[in-house]
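SUBJECT: A protein chain and its fold
Encoding: whole-number codes for local backbone shapes
Chain under study, with its fold:
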Amino acid sequence: MPCLSRGQCLAPLLWVVSAAAVAQQPPVARGGPETRDQQLEFTLLGGATFSDNVARASTDEEDGTIGVIGTQLKYIQESRRFKTDVDLNAAYEKYFDDTFDDGVVGGVDASLDIGIVPERFLWVFQENFGQIQSNRFASTTPENRENINYFTTGPDIAFHLGDTMSLTLSGRHSETNYEKQNLDGQQNGGGLSLGRQLSAKSTLSMNVEAEQFEFDDEIANPNYDRQRAFLRYDMDVARTALKVDAGYTAIDIDGEKSDGLLARVSLSRQVSPGSTFSLSAGNEFSDSAELFRSGQDQSGVSIETPGLDASSDPFTNRYASLGFDFNRHRTSFGVSLQYSKEMYETQTELDRTITTYGLYLGRQLSPVLSARLFGALDQRRSDDITFDDDEMRVGVNLELAIGRTLALKFQYQLYDRDSSLAQTDYTENQASLFLLWSPVRSR
């Protein structure tokens, strides 16, 4: 896959680095011991998917077969000088019936913090690569998705002001690149944080951030500035993690200024040894690339293409989410609800509300056989134009271990879309069979 920019060349490089990291690790049996400062899961898969509506057409459906070769990697490592977090989920798809061009789907969410002077001078790298929809009104197919790459780097410099106070200066340079749309640009910014440690597990800080967004095509995509000033309370105790931001934010587009409340809350509570409750909510100015990155950070990297709009126009993002996860002995279970409202500054025709419901249930049926049911419903409502879109995905998979490192996985998925544009509605049934090889898995 060709690179879209210098930053996007990091995506294939991460594949090489990830493979090298795996090669250096000794094999660990499934369910083996977990080290405090390192976690590693790695899987290669190969197989095929049969679809009864491979083009996701509303009429004259045609079936097709897709060959799949993929890899999944989760790697977390932390030491005094380095902190690494890699989430890679990507596959190469070959359409045997030539319905679409062959290509790569999925992406990577990777970060690397280098302690040049530990706890005082850090250099940060973050790379996010994946796909988004090109046209929100059409169904998601290889013709209606494009690659997006968002790369960020910069320093954090910390000064300790006594036993409980600290001052942190930060700078960031980012590059955003799209495969098809004329939205490429860069972002430069800096920040200052003055913090006080209230206890061993909690801090309070005052934060100021300023950013400039500049696009390659400034005529089609006006440059703009964004500022934020807020208080942050951060607490992480035995079973509860809480972060609260409250303050002021503003953006300036060609002299036209908008401002408002900046509010963000995230809460995670371990209700019991096997269950966790999570909550988040907020109101802030955001953009397409930032929403893409936060989606990967919060939900993980998926092969499925998220229903994000590509736009250079900033927007107010009001969001809330609830989640409950249970994992105990042989059973796992989870439910989630997400709500977001996007209000664009100039392209008001893009304003919309999105509600997403999610559910999964897993069970270890025997020492070698596991099953998982899952489902999701996305409801999208446009504000300024008459367009509604409901998209449902439900499925089940069975995984049979045939040794310490090999497994067979069968998966069935049903996709159903119902929208205001009847010609974009579709129903698709998929059946897949994969061979999995997991030489390393620590949890």
Observations:
- Residues 10-23 form the longest helix (14 residues).
- The first strand starts at residue 28 and ends at 32.
- The CA atoms of residues 88 and 108 lie 4 Å apart.
- Confidence is low (pLDDT under 50) at residues 5-20, 22-36.
